[in-house]
Write a structure and sequence with these properties.
The chain has about 280 residues and is an alpha+beta fold. The chain has helices at about 10-50, 55-80, 90-105, 105-120, 160-165, 190-200, 245-260; strands spanning about 130, 135-140, 145-150, 155-160, 170, 180-185, 220-225, 230-235. The strands form two sheets. A five-stranded antiparallel β-sheet has the order 4-3-2-1-5.
Length: about 280
């Protein structure tokens, strides 16, 4: 006896179910198409607005990708709901997985958020000389996770962006000219005006292009110390990259200028008096 495999299939039921599902299916397709079209229309406005604010290319790319993910995912979820699919369990599972992933990648996410803050706030740019904590160097690269700095010792520092955001950052290149301070002392018996003239005589912006042509150097009395008069020799340079070389060079020149003009740099000393009883 032969068995008909289609005898238990109710074609009429399948047809009626399909006909009833078609409106929901097309409605879901229309909902997804609407969100897809909305993304393509609004992403141009979003990208243009961020470019007008001169946002970094990395943050523009990340923002656009995140915006696309959120909008297209919402469109898919609403389309499935429109088709009659029960998405409550799936959303609950995704929520639990998202929380677990968030805890596992907490530090990475913190660095990414800090990277967005750096790109948006722009405390420094690539090429700037900055000081983070007790480290000083030139910014060579800024990524969403870390900032790379090359020190004067040619060390390559990779600093997490979260550390950059939480630390005190000094940007030596932000305002153009940088003042270099050189501390030194003279004896109380030496003339301050003479010392000032001697120090200013070693400054010549025409011979040293690193020095500013517009901001004048000066010498101030900083403190009347126990062992001498403490002066501060202040001069201006054009670029932060010359800050340390200029300081070292002119510190040596300042010492020679003081000595060549018959003055001395005092050193700590103690006078002991004895008494005969």
């Amino acid at each position: 006896m032969s068995v008909n495999p289609f005898q238990y299939i109710d074609l009429a039921q399948i047809w009626s179910t399909s006909v009833a599902f078609l409106p929901r299916f097309f409605a879901g397709i229309l909902v997804f198409a609407a969100f897809y079209l909305l993304y393509h229309v609004t992403v141009l406005v979003l990208r243009s607005a961020m470019e007008r604010r001169k946002a970094h290319a990395s943050i523009i790319s990340l923002t656009v990708k995140t915006y696309k993910l959120v909008l297209i995912s919402t469109g898919i979820v609403l389309a499935l709901y429109q088709m009659g699919v029960n998405i409550t369990a799936a959303l609950t599972g995704l929520g639990v997985a998202g929380v677990a992933l968030g805890f596992a990648a907490k530090d990475t996410l913190s660095n990414y958020i800090a990277g967005i803050t750096i790109f948006w706030d722009k405390p420094f740019y690539v090429g700037d000389y900055i000081e983070v904590g007790n480290r000083y160097g030139r910014v060579t690269e800024i990524t969403m996770r870390s900032t790379r700095i090359r020190t004067r010792q040619n060390q390559y520092l990779i600093v997490p962006n979260q550390t950059i955001v939480n630390e005190l950052v000094i940007n030596h290149s932000k305002n153009g000219e940088v003042r270099v301070d050189i501390p030194l002392s003279i004896s109380y018996s030496d003339d301050i005006a003479r010392a000032r003239d001697a120090l200013l005589s070693i400054i010549d912006p025409d011979l040293d292009p690193r020095l500013s042509q517009y901001l004048r150097p000066n010498v101030i009395v900083e403190e009347l110390g126990d062992n001498g008069v403490h002066l501060r020799f202040r001069l201006w340079i054009n670029n932060a990259e010359d800050e340390l070389p200029v300081r070292f060079e002119y510190m040596e020149r300042a010492k020679l200028a003081i000595e060549q003009n018959g003055m001395s740099i005092p050193f700590p000393q103690r006078v002991v008096h004895t008494r005969n009883d």
